[in-house]
Structures are given as structure tokens and as C-alpha cells.
Design brief:
The complex is a heterodimer of chains A (about 375) and B (about 240).
Chain A: H1 2-17, H2 19-39, E1 47-53, H3 58-69, E2 73-79, H4 83-91, E3 96-100, H5 104-111, E4 116-120, H6 125-147, H7 170-201, H8 203-209, H9 214-242, H10 252-276, H11 280-298, H12 310-316, H13 320-334, H14 338-366
Parallel strand pairs in A: 1-2, 1-3
Antiparallel strand pairs in A: 3-4
Helix pairs in contact in A: 1-9, 2-7, 2-9, 7-9, 7-10, 7-11, 7-13, 9-10, 10-13, 10-14, 13-14
Chain B: E1 5-16, E2 19-30, E3 34-39, H1 45-52, E4 60-65, E5 68-69, H2 74-80, E6 81-84, H3 96-106, H4 111-125, H5 140-151, E7 158-162, H6 170-185, E8 189-194, H7 197-200, E9 205-210, E10 213-218, H8 220-226, H9 232-241
Parallel strand pairs in B: 3-8, 3-9, 6-7, 7-8
Antiparallel strand pairs in B: 1-2, 1-4, 4-5, 9-10
Helix pairs in contact in B: 3-4, 5-6
């Protein structure tokens, strides 16, 4: 035990004396979560739009007012001719133009139908989509207000309700993903680098010649990273609660346990990588290519798995991050207990045991 | 078993697939001896040594180190030997004292013993001023000497040195050999591989490996007589050229 403590102390010296690894450990999680939370977002706020109003009557004015007073849009420009539409888009001044047809009110009363054209700048398709959805929502609401005195029979009004993330805040989606990436990065990449570093420097040989058992060396090397990863997970959860006001619905204890399970699976992968790479650079490249990319692309963090082609859907099943994201999304956003995520947990546990066994086996073979 | 013999090797062989890296070598090393293990690059020196220090499994043959069988008691061997590898292998980002404490710790020395040892060691090496400096900032010669002292920290019966003086200036090499003599005087057996033939002259006995086999084994003096050569260098050249 005393040997073990000495070993861990040494490991912490390595970490704290290397500014780069310190940065990766603590700077990156914070930077990433802030970036994803603030900068990379699907929400729209104060989007500049232009209005082309051919009727200029009471109804169009009211609609324009409604749109302008929402926090999503600000009417930047009033244009008067169809030809101007192209030019405002080209200048990049607005993201959308609302084109009200001539005799809007009259048409509405006479024919029960009036048209607004929503023209959006689809160079950024996501934003364009969101804008048109938001405008539609405002219009529908207005329509309902207009119709509330008139009794219409057999009218189907679909009412959409977004549950678990009613405001559609993208940070809710990013936090579990970023947490997964960071835990993967810190645990797998940092351990694989730190083990290969000892191999590269020749100190691993010295450790193996010492009375320490290989398994003690491995545990000694990964233990500090388990500890630091847990701290990291806590920092991320805290940042998302206090800065992004993201409510954590479920049990923090369960969240912690599941995180530790995921951390250990990532560590096992890190050890595995270190057994197949001779230099720190190789370890880093393999970690990035074989772990980071799948985590970002195939875990369902950014791209929904259900809309992927079938082969990719199948592949996504072998990525531990996929299961972890399902688990923590469940806990954080839906307050689910173990009874709803035991299947995912079991899969993650199975993977962890598999990777652990494999890496310890491979590590032993390397010693020959 | 002869207690005087701390290393006994008989027909030790290591195969990598079809390639025989170490071919049935037989020798023994006496207690307190400085045993030079010579050979060209790729002759199988390091592989043979790795089998003796328990980090590589022999394919066949017998070997006992410090009285323990390499096949069955590798863990016991590890407690009784010190090892200094070819690469300088202390931690650059730890201070001199931290390195000593760490390596003392993994060999299970008590805190008190580590403290005593490190005071003596730092004084002997004249490292008082840099004791709290990172090892990475020290010149290579100092590191090498520190590394050797660290390998002796737990008073091993045998110390294995794998080309310990590579890339070091002649003066430091000289000082290094003085340290080796001192360790041998105190009863530690020294098993050393080297490229430098002048260093071979400092050894009590020398073995020369060629293509995985031990082709010659005796005192430097007798080897020179046997091969009718002036220096060990010539002995080596004659052997290597066949």
C-alpha cells in the first residue's frame, strides 16, 4: 500500500508539472463546455429580418408588431419592392424576409385566406429552418386569437409540446455529449500517453524489473486519472447547473456511479492503446482517430443515430459513448432511475470488463 | 548449489519465432565479481540480460539468479537485483530527492531508511546544491551516476548495468567505474554490458557474445594470451571477424 501511494504521488507530480497535460485536463473541459453552451447553439435570438409589406393595413401591422416584439426577431429593414429582396440577402443584412401579399386584410375577410411568404437565407439550413418554424408559430398563435370568437366545427389543431427540454435549449443536448467527450479524452488519451511515455523513456523497464507487479503499475498509472476524471465530471455538471441553468433532474449519485463506470471503460481503452503504440505521438493519434471521432460522430451526440444509414447504426452499438450518452441524458433530463437504464448500464459494464480483460492480457504479452 | 555463485546459467536459449537470439549460453558469476558481458550490437546481450532480470521468459535452459530460478521465481529475483538500463531512466520531471524517494518506495524501503540513504547518497555524489532541482536540468554524467546509485538503493545482491556509460565523457566514465569498484568491494556483484573495450579491461572476467553464443569467457589477461592480442579490442575484433 505504501508503495502504491508513493507511485500515485509520483504520477501527480508528472501531471502537475506538465503544463500541457494540465491544460488538457482542466482548461479543455471548461473551454469546451462554454463554447458549446454559448457559441455553438441552435437557438435563434434577435435575428435580423426585413419586411416587404404590400398591403400596409391593420392586420399586417399587427402581425409585424407581434413578430418584432418577440425576442427572436428584430425587424431591421422595411423594403418596398420585390427586387430589393435579393439585394438585402446579398448584402447579408438579414436572414429572412417576410413578404405580405397585396390586400392582406381584405383577402383574409373575403376569402378567409391570406398569404405571407417567408423567404429565408438557407446558406445556413439549420437557422433557416428554425426561423421559419418560429415565424409559423407566431402566425399560428395570432390566427388562433383571431378565430377565438368564431366557432368552427371540426377543426384539427395540432398542439406540439416539447417535453424534457421545452425551450429546446441546445445546451441540454451538448452537456451530456461534451461530458462524454471530455471523460473519454482525459481518461483514454491521457492514460495511453502517460503509459507510453514511460515506455519511451525506458522507465517502464525499470518499473517492471522492480518488485512491483505489472498490475500494480497499471493501477498506479490509471488511478490519478480516475480521480481527475471524476473531478472533471463534477466541474462539467456544476458549470451546466450554475451557468446554463440546466436542471439535473435525476439522482446525482447514480450519475456519479455511471460516470465512474464510463471512466473505467475509457481507461481500459487507454491501456489497450498504450500496449499497441510505441511512442506518445502514436498513442495520441490512435486515441484521436479511434476514439474521439467515433465519439463525436457516431455516438448520437451531434448526429441522431436513427437517421444514419444501417451499417453506421450497427457500428454505433460498439461505441461505449453511445450508451453512456443515453444513460446520462436519461438521468439528467428525464429523471430516470436504474430500472429504465439497466440495459444500457449492463452493456457498458460488459464492454468495460471486456476491454479491461483484453488490455491486461495484451499488457502481459508485451512484457515477454 | 554453490553459494558463492550468484548467477548460474546453463544452456539458456531464447527464440523469437525461427530466430535464435540467445543460443544455449552457459556461464556463472561469482559473488562480488565484476562480470563484463560483451558483444556487438544484436549479438543477444540485452536479450540474455532481460531473461536474467525476469522481464523476458527463456525458451529453454536453466538459470538461477541470486539463488532463484528465473522460470519459477522471477518475483523473488526482482527483490534482490538492481537494474540500470541503457536509456537514462530516472524521471526528468521529478527532483533528485523525489526520484530517490520514489525508487526507494517501490522497493519497499521504510521512510526513515529512504531519508538516511538519500542524505548519504546526495552527499557522496556532491549533489547537495541540486537536491531539490529537477533531474532533467542535470548534465548527463551526473544523471548517470545518480541512476547507478538509485539502482543500488535497496542494497541488491546483484546489479545489472546495460551499457551504463553510453554517451558520457571519459572523466565521468572513469568516475563511474570507481563507483562500480566501490560497489563490488562492498560485496555487490556487478553484471555489466558495454561497447567500450577499454572498459572490458576493468572487469574481473569477461564473456564475449557473437551471434547469440558465448565465444569466449575468461579474465581479460587470459583472453589476451589466448588470442595473442595486445588489447581487449583486438581480442574482440579477432572473435568478431571469426
Amino acid at each position: 500500500m505504501k508503495r502504491f501511494i508513493g507511485f500515485i504521488k509520483k504520477e501527480f507530480y508528472h501531471i502537475f508539472r506538465d503544463r500541457r497535460s494540465l491544460f488538457i485536463l482542466f482548461g479543455m473541459p471548461i473551454a469546451q463546455i462554454l463554447l458549446f453552451g454559448f457559441a455553438i447553439t441552435n437557438e435563434i435570438n434577435n435575428v435580423d429580418i426585413a419586411i416587404l409589406d404590400h398591403s400596409k393595413d391593420a392586420t399586417t401591422k399587427e402581425i409585424i408588431n407581434k413578430i418584432a416584439s418577440s425576442k427572436y426577431f428584430s425587424t431591421k429593414q422595411i423594403i418596398n419592392r420585390e427586387e430589393d429582396i435579393a439585394s438585402v440577402f446579398k448584402k447579408g443584412q438579414v436572414k429572412a424576409v417576410l413578404n405580405f401579399e397585396k390586400d392582406f386584410s381584405k383577402n383574409l375577410i373575403k376569402e378567409n385566406k391570406a398569404t405571407i411568404q417567408i423567404i429565408t437565407d438557407a446558406t445556413d439550413p439549420n437557422t433557416a429552418n428554425t426561423i421559419s418554424n418560429y415565424v409559423n408559430a407566431i402566425l399560428q398563435k395570432y390566427q388562433k386569437e383571431l378565430n377565438k370568437d368564431i366557432t368552427m366545427v371540426y377543426q384539427i389543431v395540432p398542439e406540439t409540446r416539447m417535453v424534457y427540454n421545452p425551450e429546446l435549449k441546445s445546451v441540454y443536448m451538448f452537456v451530456p455529449g461534451v461530458m462524454t467527450i471530455i471523460l473519454m479524452l482525459v481518461s483514454a488519451m491521457m492514460t495511453s500517453i502517460s503509459i507510453t511515455r514511460e515506455k519511451e523513456l525506458g522507465t517502464m523497464e525499470i518499473l517492471l524489473v522492480s518488485p512491483l507487479k505489472p498490475i500494480q503499475v497499471i493501477i498506479g498509472k490509471v488511478f490519478p486519472y480516475i480521480f481527475l476524471s471524476i473531478i472533471n465530471a463534477a466541474i462539467i455538471v456544476m458549470l451546466s447547473i450554475f451557468i446554463f441553468k440546466m436542471p439535473v433532474q435525476g439522482s446525482l449519485f447514480l450519475l456519479g456511479l455511471e460516470s465512474i463506470l464510463f471512466i473505467i471503460s475509457a481507461l481500459a481503452l487507454g491501456i489497450l492503446i498504450s500496449t499497441i503504440s510505441a511512442t506518445q505521438q502514436t498513442a495520441m493519434m490512435i486515441s484521436l482517430m479511434a476514439l474521439m471521432l467515433p465519439v463525436i460522430l457516431l455516438s448520437g451526440f451531434i448526429f441522431p443515430i436513427s437517421s444514419m444509414p444501417l451499417p453506421l447504426q450497427v457500428i454505433s452499438n460498439i461505441i461505449p459513448a453511445k450508451w453512456f450518452i443515453i444513460i446520462i441524458k436519461g438521468i439528467m433530463l428525464k429523471d430516470v432511475g436504474l430500472q429504465f437504464i439497466w440495459k444500457e448500464t449492463l452493456i457498458l459494464l460488459g464492454m468495460t470488463v471486456f476491454f479491461m480483460t483484453l488490455s491486461v492480457k495484451k499488457y502481459k504479452i508485451r512484457l515477454e | 548449489m554453490n553459494n558463492n555463485k550468484v548467477i548460474q546459467v546453463e544452456g539458456l536459449t531464447k527464440m523469437f519465432g525461427d530466430f535464435t537470439a540467445v543460443n544455449a549460453i552457459t556461464f556463472d558469476v561469482k559473488k562480488g565479481e565484476i562480470f563484463g558481458f560483451l558483444g556487438a550490437n544484436g549479438a543477444g546481450k540485452t536479450t540474455a540480460m532481460k531473461m536474467l532480470i525476469g522481464i523476458s521468459n527463456p525458451t529453454s535452459g536453466k538459470a538461477k539468479v541470486a539463488g532463484f530460478d528465473v522460470f519459477t521465481h522471477a518475483e523473488d529475483i526482482k527483490k534482490n537485483i538492481g537494474y540500470m538500463s541503457q536509456k537514462f531512466a530516472l524521471y526528468d520531471d521529478l527532483t533528485v530527492k523525489e526520484n530517490i524517494t520514489f525508487f526507494g518506495g517501490i522497493y519497499g524501503l521504510s521512510r526513515k531508511r529512504i531519508k538516511e540513504k538519500s542524505t548519504v547518497l546526495i552527499e557522496e555524489l556532491g549533489l547537495e546544491k541540486v537536491a531539490n532541482k529537477l533531474v532533467g536540468s542535470l548534465p548527463l554524467g551526473w544523471k548517470q551516476k545518480l541512476s547507478f546509485s538509485v539502482s543500488l538503493l535497496h542494497d541488491p545482491k546483484i546489479v545489472f548495468l546495460d551499457e551504463p556509460t553510453g554517451g558520457v565523457d571519459p572523466i565521468t566514465r572513469r568516475q563511474f567505474w570507481e563507483m562500480i569498484y566501490k560497489a563490488a568491494d562492498q560485496g555487490t556483484t556487478v553484471f555489466v554490458t558495454t561497447h567500450y573495450m577499454d572498459e572490458a579491461e576493468y572487469c574481473d572476467r569477461v564473456s564475449i557474445m557473437v551471434d547469440g553464443k558465448i565465444e569466449a569467457l575468461d579474465t581479460p589477461k587470459k583472453l589476451k594470451e589466448q588470442f595473442n592480442a595486445e588489447t581487449m579490442n583486438n581480442v574482440f575484433l579477432k572473435l568478431a571477424r571469426g
